[in-house]
Amino acid sequence: MMNSQNNISSQIARQILIDAEKNGLTVEDYVKNLADEQSENQFVEDCYKITIRKASIDYDFTESQKWLKNNAQKYAGKWVILDGKRFIGAGDNPLPFVEKARQEGVKVPFVQFVEDNSKASMGGWL
């Protein structure tokens, strides 16, 4: 007899038995694999979570946009982080540069990915 701490629905228990058998595993190994897989997926999901904060102040990015327009070709395929006209950094991952900007007192850094349009595209009929 099961106590209340170990209760799962009979439908779930039946499905676990069927799936374990289909995979040639004992129920114990099957459940362990499920638990490990869930932990891995959660870890990967946590690693890629990015918190996006909405600024409560209006900020004019005109200077940053002008700077980027004049310098974007140098940073194709990279993230560029600016504070007005001041260049903070550029790279494959913007987070370290955003962190640096905040440490320097920048409340709202300008962050933009620069598309690499230099590669020729193959369009039309072959």
Any key phrases for this structure?
126 residues, elongated, alpha+beta, three-stranded antiparallel β-sheet, 3 strands
How is the secondary structure organized here?
Blueprint: H1 10-22, H2 27-47, H3 62-71, E1 79-83, E2 86-91, H4 95-103, E3 110-113
Antiparallel strand pairs: 1-2, 1-3
Helix pairs in contact: 1-2
Give a quick summary of the entry.
The chain has 126 residues and is α+β, with helices and mostly antiparallel strands.
Question: Could you explain the architecture of this structure?
Answer:
This protein is an alpha+beta fold. The protein has four helices and three strands. A three-stranded antiparallel beta sheet has the order 2-1-3, with helices on one face. Strand 1 and strand 2 form a beta hairpin. Helix 1 packs across helix 2. The protein is elongated and about 65 Å long. The protein starts with 9 loop residues before the first helix and ends in a 13-residue tail after the last strand. The mean pLDDT is 80.
Provide the structure class.
alpha+beta
- Fraction of residues in β-strands: 5-15%
User: Strand tally, please?
Assistant: 3
Binned, the helix content reads 40-55%
Radius of gyration: 25 Å
User: SSE order, as H and E?
Assistant: HHHEEHE
For the biggest sheet, the summary is:
3 strands, antiparallel
Strands of the largest sheet, in order across it? 2-1-3
Low-confidence sequence ranges: none
The rough form would be described as: elongated
On the 0 to 100 scale, the average pLDDT is 80
H/I helix tally: 4
Instruction: Please give the alpha-carbon distance between the first and last residues.
Output: 70 Å
